[in-house]
Amino acid sequence: MELTLFPTVGTIAQREILRATLETSMREVSELLSRYNVSSVVIEQADGHYVFSVEDLLVHVHEGGHTSAKLGDLPIRKVACIGENEHILAGLDELEKSGDRYLGVVGSGGELVGILTYTDILSAVDPTVLVQKKTIGELISRTEPVTFSPDWILEDVLSHLRKMEDSIIVVEAGIPVGIITTKDIFRILSSGSATDLPLAEYMTSPVATTHIDATIHDALMQLKTLKIKRAVVVDANRHLVGVVTQSELVGFAYGTWIDLVKHHASELKELVGILESKALGLEKSALTDPLTGIGNRRMLQQRLEEEIQRMRRYRSSPFSLLLIDIDHFKRVNDSHGHLVGDEVLKLVAATLRGLVRTVDDVTRWGGEEFAVLLPHTPIAAAAEFAARVRLAIENLALPRQIRVSISIGAGEFAVAETEQAFFERVDKALYRAKRNGRNCVVADAGPEGA
């Protein structure tokens, strides 16, 4: 069997497919998933293959769906498919493009033969999985090992023990019946015992053997458990196939991994690029508000911490923060609906983003509240900028001739205060702006005693 670091998708896909029909009810789906301990069922239609997963089932239940509902009544997802002989990186690329958790694997006739997930792909290139999947039969030489029958005299075969891991395998009719190790020889020699007796007098019996189909991982675990240094490998008829030492097993597992890495250097580079891109995408999504596309609360907190650390470390120029609230936004939702309200939020966010510098950060704090972090900006400049922002939003052309205004609280960070105290100061400035009639800017004078 040829070893490869990047196999075809057909060799790593989950071949056990649980099929359902559009008539299958949610109760039946849940029973199938539980009984067979799988995460999805497949529905095959004339136009393609569809998947209904555990996650879909949970969403259905969470939304108050009935267990009597049938798959045909629900929005099941059509899965992208790839040929079973395609390269594993092609499978990873398809998963990225589809944005789904599942990828169908099809045979030459278009029939579904398996399901592929990210877990399957990552497991296939894991060196620890390599030793779990490769069998000891792929390592061991099929040449006839040197063996001796029980009537051989020990001193006649001592020359075969030259290294610590060497051993003498005693066989009868091809079946290993005993073993003599270098440790046994040391014990015999140190005790002064004679070495001119048959091997049967010295050997350890019975022999711990390893089946030729055992994985390298299992063989290594057996050696560790039994505290022995070699695997005596046998076939289905218990006939001796060969002997593999512990160092050979470890060397094969990791030597093969190193060789494969070298051979597939370009593919590994591509894989790393794909995974880094995915990681960056996940990081970006974790810091982005999904509605407006600007930063979210988590991003603001992260950037606040960075700016505070910068000021305290370098005693550099101050930064300021604007907290912005859309005045009477509830009226927009009540009068025009939430979809229109969402459009207003997106337009306000886009306007803010268009007004700031590249070093500034615009975030949605929550609901109709926004924040703008202004590095290297004292309070006077921040208040001046806030006034321009207020005017731009007041004159913003919105759908259905909607007019909105904003209230803004502004504050400059003082090195001696905490992040929480600073935020509370700016939040109170925003509250004063709303209390003063809204559609205005209030700049905080700074912490008391500063």
UniProtKB/TrEMBL annotation:
An example molecular function term from Gene Ontology annotations: diguanylate cyclase activity
Catalytic activity, reaction form: 2 GTP = 3',3'-c-di-GMP + 2 diphosphate
Entry-linked Pfam families: CBS, GGDEF
Cofactor(s), names only, from the UniProt record: Mg(2+)
Highest taxon, organism lineage: Bacteria
GO cellular component, one term: plasma membrane
EC number: 2.7.7.65
GO biological process: cell adhesion involved in single-species biofilm formation; negative regulation of bacterial-type flagellum-dependent cell motility
Protein name, as recorded: diguanylate cyclase
Organism: Methylomonas koyamae
